[in-house]
Design brief:
Distance between the termini: 8 Å
Order of helices and strands: HHHH
Number of helices: 4
Number of strands: 0
Radius of gyration: 15 Å
Helix content: 55-70%
Largest sheet: none
């Protein structure tokens, strides 16, 4: 239903040097925590807004994306940003970050884009993240 993303480097700053292994371990932990928050938040939203046993309406789903999903995705992105970039990995990480920031911007301007795989702006960012090893950073 909803695909998250991880990214980084909005202001181009980096923290102290980090190894790729540490980056992946911490990045995946950040994304796993955020994914759990999204899952729990959507469940609470459904309990509070949907009729018992009924799925969320399209309008409710879009509202859930706006109030539950996107704030957590932003936190995931900012958390991974704060990790810095492993030496020698600048081009790969910066590509993930750039695509991820663009996807977040698109999703925030059109939350309904996250309702289908065909329109999900995080598809490319998730592919790049998984290829790099950030396997928890895709929904």
């Amino acid at each position: 239903m909803i695909v998250t993303g991880c990214g980084g480097g909005v202001d181009g700053s980096q923290s102290a040097a980090i190894t790729k292994a540490t980056f992946l371990k911490r990045g995946n932990a950040i994304c796993a925590k955020g994914n759990k928050e999204i899952e729990e938040g959507i469940k609470r939203f459904e309990e509070e807004n949907a009729l018992p046993g009924a799925p969320l309406s399209r309008e409710q789903l879009i509202e859930a994306i706006e109030v539950v999903v996107l704030p957590v995705v932003r936190e995931q992105i900012e958390g991974v940003e704060a990790l810095g970039i492993p030496d020698g990995e600048e081009s790969q990480i910066e590509a993930i970050h750039e695509v991820d920031r663009e996807a977040l911007e698109k999703a925030e301007s059109d939350p309904s884009s996250l309702t289908t795989e065909q329109t999900n702006p995080f598809t490319e960012a998730n592919r790049l993240a998984v290829e790099y090893g950030l396997v928890k950073c895709s929904g």
